[in-house]
Specification:
With about 230 residues, the chain is an alpha+beta fold. It contains 6 helices and 10 strands.
Length: about 230
């Protein structure tokens, strides 16, 4: 009599494939995502809640690939970014210095970041270079990344494009990277839900930096990071 042995769901198999590619252990996966320990080892399906937890922590995964196996493992924006990195920048510049007054996106120095977020007139006192970057439509300003807290997503010296978010209608897209002006200064961090509605969790991609909660009342201005320029 042949035994009807249940096999691992294709979605679980693809999650395991992704973790192997990223060299993430199952222990790290359960710890980071909050998925119940041992789920990936069971020969059955996986719940919508656990799929959501996986995608929330690993937003670079292509959802179509995860659910159906079609397409690339990484999401379109990641694949596009990889393709841009392989382009000869001398022949195909992704950014060019603006030649007309008022054109392009201003590159704000670190010390003026808070002013750029709040729209203070003092930012205009800086003689900011402006760049035309066709792929960053809707960006309000560019700023350089300083430090290693968001490595490997962003490295020190990268330039990120930011789009201001009105404080009057503040809505966070969980797990996205934002520039926020706080009572601790300007920060470039990933934002996740806090312990209650009055707090958010501030998360660095670099595991050497511990996450911490911040009262929403301590946030003075917010901008969503919509792209990056990286010099190889």
């Amino acid at each position: 009599m042949q035994e009807n042995k249940q096999e691992k769901s294709p979605i679980k198999q693809r999650i395991l494939l992704f973790l192997a590619k990223k060299e993430v252990t199952q222990y790290e996966f359960y710890k980071n995502t909050g998925v119940t320990r041992g789920v990936l080892g069971q020969n059955n399906g996986i719940s919508e809640e656990n799929i959501s937890r996986f995608l929330a922590y690993y937003p670079e995964v292509n959802i179509e690939w995860l659910m159906t196996g079609r397409g690339e493992m990484l999401a379109d924006d990641q694949a596009t970014h990889t393709r841009h990195k392989s382009i000869d920048v001398d022949k195909h510049p992704v950014a060019s210095l603006a030649t007309e007054p008022g054109k392009g996106i201003p590159l704000i120095p670190i010390e003026a970041m808070a002013g750029a977020l709040t729209g203070e007139q003092s930012v205009l006192e800086y003689e900011c270079e402006r760049y035309v970057v066709p792929m960053f439509k809707g960006a309000d300003f560019l700023i350089p990344v300083k430090g290693s807290s968001m490595y490997p997503k962003y490295s020190s010296g990268d330039i990120v494009a930011c789009q201001c978010v009105p404080m009057s209608d503040l809505f966070f897209q969980w797990n996205k990277v934002y520039v926020i002006d706080t009572n601790q200064g300007a920060l470039i961090k990933r934002i996740k839900p806090g312990s209650d509605e009055k707090h958010v969790l501030i998360v660095s991609d670099n595991e050497k930096y511990d996450p911490f909660e911040l009262p929403i009342s301590s946030i003075y201005a917010v901008a969503l990071v919509i792209g990056v320029i990286r010099l190889e």
